[in-house]
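Q: What structure does this chain adopt?
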Amino acid sequence: MRSDYIFRQEFGHILAALTAPNRLALETSLATGLRIGDVLSLRSDRLAQRMTVRESKTGKTKRVRIPTELLERLQRQAGKYMVFEGRIDPKRPRTRQAVYKDIKRACRLFRLPTALQISPHSARKIYAVDQYHKSGDLKRVQRLLNHETEAVTMVYAMADQLTRRRMGT
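A:
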């Protein structure tokens, strides 16, 4: 499914309307650039400020740094096995679909256009745009996202500009 970029301030409104665990998962994605599935798969016993995560989609490893305040909130949230425990089995993580449904509920609450495809992956695009604005270095953003090609990274890093053009602003 295609995922649209949304400006950070508007995404902040959506975050505010989510359940606390889903909001925390998306804040983690915003801070690290991890896909939501990888955030939800974080294990409680491996949670650290600097850690290596194996991406489920690509199998590649990625080093991430979790800001102190966010790490403390993740530690408070963490269950015995998983940081984001599943509803039925605490040894399994919360599902991506649960986070997606919560985002869709928040989008309806704020009456966002249904044509706008806001999903957990939108957080990864916000991360890419933020990193590109900070560094101006597309290769750096490519490394941070673990993308194979610069072309894919460019779509992420310039998502804000593409969105502005599409909206005519």
